[in-house]
Amino acid sequence: MAPNTPPLLEAHYGVPMAGAVLNAINTRLDANTVAFILEHAESKLLIADREFSAVVKPALQSLGRDIAVIDIDDALAEGGELLGETDYEALLAEGDPDRPIAMPDDEWRALSLCYTSGTTGDPKGVVYHHRGAYLNAIGNALVFGLNRHSVYLWTLPMFHCNGWTYTWAVTAVGGTHVCLRKVDPAAIFPLIRDQGVTHMCGAPIVLNMLVHAPVNMRQTFDHTVEVATGGAAPPSAVIEGMERMGFHVTHLYGLTESYGPAAYCAWQDEWDGLDLQPRAERMARQGVPYPTLPALSVRDPETMAPVPDDGETIGEIMLRGHTIMRGYLKNPEASAAAFRGGWYHTGDLGVMHGDGYIEVKDRSKDIIITGGENVSSLEIEETLFRHPEVMEAAVVARPDDKWGETPCAFVTLKPGMEGRVSGDDIIAFCRAHMAHFKCPKTVVFGPLPKTSTGKIQKYVLREQAKKM
Amino acid sequence: MAPNTPPLLEAHYGVPMAGAVLNAINTRLDANTVAFILEHAESKLLIADREFSAVVKPALQSLGRDIAVIDIDDALAEGGELLGETDYEALLAEGDPDRPIAMPDDEWRALSLCYTSGTTGDPKGVVYHHRGAYLNAIGNALVFGLNRHSVYLWTLPMFHCNGWTYTWAVTAVGGTHVCLRKVDPAAIFPLIRDQGVTHMCGAPIVLNMLVHAPVNMRQTFDHTVEVATGGAAPPSAVIEGMERMGFHVTHLYGLTESYGPAAYCAWQDEWDGLDLQPRAERMARQGVPYPTLPALSVRDPETMAPVPDDGETIGEIMLRGHTIMRGYLKNPEASAAAFRGGWYHTGDLGVMHGDGYIEVKDRSKDIIITGGENVSSLEIEETLFRHPEVMEAAVVARPDDKWGETPCAFVTLKPGMEGRVSGDDIIAFCRAHMAHFKCPKTVVFGPLPKTSTGKIQKYVLREQAKKM
Fold first, then answer.
1. Which ipTM did the prediction report?
2. Short-list B262, B338, B265, B325, CA closest to B295
3. Which range marks the domain in which residue A26 is found?
C-alpha cells in the first residue's frame, strides 16, 4: 500500500521474483475495505507507506490475525506512523543477491491480484497471470510507441491494474520510470521539462488538472508528450487544451479484468480534415483491439451473435484473448458468469461501427467512474440503507466536468422524516462509513420511479442526474 | 516460389488462413534441391513466379507425382514460361469472401516451413508455429521501433525465415510494405526517397551494394532509414559509409531455427564517446536477447554449465523460449540433438561479456554464409567428391569484402592427376551440379592437414583461407 514511489515499482518485480503474488492496494480505500482485501487475499505480508497508517492501522486491527508489516519510511511522506517490525530498506538489505529468481513453473500462474469494485459491494479479486501481463505490457509498448528512449511519468496509480501494466511495459523496452508521489501539476510540468518525459497515462481527471492548472504553474517544453487516458472519453475542449500545451492524447478502453487497456482509438489520417465536432466524435470512440488482443466484439449477450456493424445496434462488448484475467479469486460463480459463452463479458453496452471501431453507449453494470476510480453504486446504496432514516435509495452517475462522474443519490426518507434529514447529513453519514471518494456529491429526496414490478428505473434517474 | 512481390506477402496470410502451411522456397536453389523440398514437405500446391520456371519445371518433372501449380504471371518477371493450370489472380477471384478464416485450434500448430542448409547436404525443414511467429514479429516491432507510420522496404528475401518474420511484424503495427522484385540500388534509392521508406533489412551484402553504388545512382533523403542486418557483423567501414548516407545500422543475430533474429546489438549511449576501433568492436557483438526471448546463454555443451561472463571463455550459444522452432520436419533425431539439455543449441561458439552481450567467435557447424545465404560446406564437399579426379576435399569459409564469406575448396587430386585439372574445371563442375551461389569461388590444390587420427583440421584451412 504505497503511492507511486520506487518501492511499489520494485514490488512489481521483487514480489513475483520471490515467488509471491503482488496485491497493490488502492491507497484511497477505507480501513474496512482494506481489511476485507487483506482477509480475502489471505495476505501474508503487508508493505505500507507510513502516510497511510491511519487506514492501515485499523485495518490490521480488524483483521483478527497477525501479518508481517514492513514500513516504507519515505522522506516525502506526509505524517503517519510506523506500524511494522521492519523498515523496507532494512528488509532489502537482508536479501541474498545470489538467491535464484523464482520463475513461475507455469505461465498461467498468478502474478498479481487487483481488487475492483464490482456490482456488489464487496471488491472482487482479479487474478492476473504472467502470460497476460507480459502480453499486455508488450501491447502498451507497441500502441504507445515505447522504446529505450522513453521517459514515463507515473501520473497513473500503480495500484490501478498494476499501472495498466506500464510497470512492466516501460522496463521491457529499457525505458525510464519517473516516480511521482502525488499527482500535482506543480510537480508534473517541471518533471516533463527537466526529465524529458515522453509518455504518461492518467484518468481524464489528470488531463483536467493539467488543462486547468494556473498559468504561472505551467511550463513549456519543446517535445510532444504522449498521454494515454482511459475511462470516459475526455471532452473535446480538454483534448484541445492538452494539444495546445504539447500533449498528444490517445483514448484507451479496458477494465481491470483485461489488465487495463484492451482497445485504443487509433487515429486515422483522414480524421485530420474533419471539423471539430465529427472529429471529437471519432476520438470519443473506444476503438480497435490492441495488437495483443485477438478478439473484440459486440454481441447479443443472450444469443452470443455479433451485432451488425451499423453503429446503431447495441450489444455487450466482449473480449477474448490471453490478456484477460484468469478469474475472480475464490469466486467461481462470478468467474463463470464473466466468461459465459466463451467470451469475457465487459458489462459495457456498445455498438460496432462500419470501420471496426467500437463505441461504448452505456454500462450495464452499476459503476460510477469518478476521478478514475470505479465506484459501485450498489455499495453506496448499501451504506445509505444503513442510515436509520433512509427508506429507499438509488445511486447513479452524474456527469461532472472535473471528476468525469460523481455519485448522485436519490433517497426516500422514512415516513415523517421528510425535511428532518439534510443532504449534508446523508453525505456526512456516508463519509463516516466508506472511503470519501465513494460518497455521493449530490443527494436528491423524493419518491423513486419504478416499473410495474417495483424495480427502480435507474435510467430515469440517470436522465434526471444528467439534467441537473 | 517467388521474389518479394505481393503474392508472396499475401501467401504469408492467405495460406495459413486457409489452414495450410506456408513453405516459401529459396528462389536461388537448383532444381534437385527444390524437388527434394517439394517431396520432403509433401507439398500439395505450388505457387510459382514464371521467372523461375527453368528451375521449377525440371523440379516438378523429377518429383514423380503431380501437384497443382499456380502461375504468378508478374508483368515485371523476366522471361520464363507458365507451367501451371491456373493463374494466381484467377485463383484469387475464385475465393469466397464469406468463407470463415481457419484459425489454428492450437497455437503450437505449424504455420510455416523453412528449409535450411544444415551440416549435411539435405536441407532440413524448420517448422514454425503460430505462437513463435507472433512473438518474434512483436519482438521485431519493439526492437526496430515499427509503428503505423513505418514504411518497410523488402530488401530481405521473404523466403529467408519468412522475411525474418517482418512479413507479419509490419502488418501487426499497421505499417506499410513496399515490395521489391530485385535488390538493386538503382531501385532502392528512389524508393527510399519517394515512398518515405523508414525501415529495411538485409544481409551485409545489401549494405555493401548500397555503399558501393555508383555516385550518380545514390539519392539523398532527409530522414534516417533504420537498417537491420544479420549474419556476420558488417565491417566498420561499411557501417560508416551507410551512416554517412543516412542509414542507421543495427546488428542482429539469429538462425532459421529461431525465426531469424533472437538477439540484437543494442546501442549503449556511452559507446558514442568511443574511438572508431573499440566502437566497431562493440557494434560487432551479437548482443542481448530480444525482449521476446526469455533466455540467451553461452554454455559448455557437455556439462550445460554457463561459461563465466569474462568475454574469453568459449562456449556454445544456446537459446530458450517460444521463438524457437517446433523442430525439424520428419527428423526426430536432429530435433532431439538440437534441443538436448533443454536448450536450443545454435552450433555457434561464442563468449559472454561482462555487460551481458554475447559475441560469436566461431561456428561449430560447417556453414558458410555468402551473400546472406547459408551454404553447407559438407554439401559442396559431397559435390566435389563426385568429380572423377578428386580424391579428397574440404571446404571452409573465406572472408570476403563483398559477400561476407565465400566457399573456399581445398582439394587433393587423385595420384597422377596433379596439374591436369584446374580450379576453373572444379568450379565449372560444381556449377553444373548445384546452385551457383553455393559453388566455391576459390580452389586450392594440395594435401590436407590432418590430425593423428586422420580428421581434417578445418581450423588450419580456415586460417589459411583468412590469409589469402
1. 0.81
2. B262
3. 1-96
